[in-house]
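quick one: iron/sulfur cluster bound model?
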Amino acid sequence: MSLTSLLEETRNLLKNNYLADDRPWVIAFSGGKDSTLVLQLVYEMLLELADQAVKPVHIVCSDTRVEPPNIAEYIHSSLRQIEEHAKKCRFPLFVHIVQPTPDESFWFNVIGKGYPTPTSTFRWCTTKMKIKPSRRVIDQIVKEYGGVIILIGVRSAESSNRAKTIKAREYNSRGMHSHEDIPDALIMSPIAQWDTDSVWHYLFTNNPAPWGTDHKFMLNLYRQANGGECPVALDLNTQSCGNSRFGCWICTVVDEDRSMRGFIDSGATELTPLYNFRNRLKQEIRPNSAMRMNQRRDGSPAPGGKGPFTPEARQMILKELLHLEVETQQALIDDDEMIHIQRQWSQDFDTRGTLVLAMAQKYGRNIKKLKVSLMSVRPENEKKDEILLELAAEHEINEQWIDELMNLVVRKYPPSNLTSNKKALLRDVQMVIEHAVTADRVAEENDF
Ligand code: SF4
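yep, here:
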């Protein structure tokens, strides 16, 4: 089919479906060429419809918190331009950059819980870092409007598997099929029949995008990364972005991260330390049985002694990551992820709840905010101690006596051991109080 007929067919499909009902649209946008084409065709349609463009269009883009810095910068700046332009045009267009929550994040799972880094057979990352965050927004839209139409940039020409999947679907009369997991969601693939050359041709004969982004920058990224892209994953049938481009910089699913290698070979040498760290995690740390526990987190034996990372390995990975931040001057882990890591470590092995803060301080992180937040995740006993010390100060009681009393009820006579020792506890408490009263009187007499 010629590009002219392809274009006409796609434009008709979009326009007819947009005007056919009130269901809002969601465009799954990854910043790659295919989803950019879908977005551009929709945007051009909105411009043409002008006052008739009243139905909301949501752009959902996932940021895994471990995106390659150059890609993240490009996508965020494009989305900012789209948002600003749409606002000026008064389009009902909304941008959602979705991120995993701290406990869905890569670093919390690897460093906090000790999850072995993902592989093609243990690919926990896509669900946690992409599917769940996207689903939260889509579920919210479905809740608000009762249904949704999701536009994706898949194409038959991407691969023979992709062509088979597209062909095997059952389509309704409007060319859409149901989403497998989201009730009340229909999927439309408006560029399913476009070949790769037509995609590039359209983007470059219609450059810049209507919202102002120059597609040359994207082409350059593709050239550097040697082609391909990482699709927005809305379900587990979505092909792994591991083997293609624009995946997470830390992706351990692929054997060789060719896109990062391509960026570095094209001159982005600032990415070399990240590339090396990914390789170390995949090739040296993950396979090293000394860094893995013999048991799973639930206590059952781990096959081949390859359970989660040991506490020592987890501390080592965090140290190396913080060191990498200093080396690259890039923010690689957020405060909220570190807070969640500390919470997990406090449960698992760090009874004083101080290790993360100490490391953050050592590597020059701004720890003021972190410190306040970490106070709230310190072990229960420490928190209780702190409250008691505050009360002691308020009532002008010497901390020493509070310490001694706490010692009795927490350590010498813990609740589990109290029934038979109640009398002994009362006697010891009385002794502490008598000492305190005596010491107080002596201090008063001596005026110190
Ligand atoms: S790029 Fe790799 S690490 Fe990131 S979600 Fe995809 S498979 Fe997982």
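The longest strand covers residues 57-62.
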